[in-house]
Amino acid sequence: MRKTPPPVAELPLRDEETERAIIAALEECRPYLQQDGGDVELVRYEAETQTAEIRFLGACAECPLMLMTLRAGIERFVQLRVPAVRRMEVV
Predict the structure, then answer these.
(1) How far is it, in rounded angstroms, from Cα 17 to Cα 52?
(2) In angstroms, how far is CA 32 from the centroid of its own chain?
């Protein structure tokens, strides 16, 4: 038996233009994180929920201030440049 793919409505929506804009905004943040031995990358953007999922790398992955860095720094910075992003989450 062949498995039928799920209907399109069930698939997560992607917006490649928004993803590129988020990546560009993260590129601007990256030097500040790299100064402390860390980094950040976009995992995915879900247009339906307007949520960008990111992953902290290096020293940032274990930093106790990671969520503060996300909420007070990166999330605000990205939202100013990419209004389609309503929320950012660490995965």
Answers:
(1) 13
(2) 17
Residue ranges of domains in the chain, CATH in brackets: 13-90 (3.30.300.130)
Q: What is the mean pLDDT of residues 44-59?
A: 96
pTM over 0.85: no
- Which helix (H) or strand (E) segment holds residue 56: the answer is strand 51-58
Nearest CA among 35, 80, 75, 40 for reference residue 56: 40
- In this predicted structure, the answer to whether residue 13 has a pLDDT above a threshold of 70 is no
- Closest C-alpha to 14, from 39, 51, 41, 40: 51
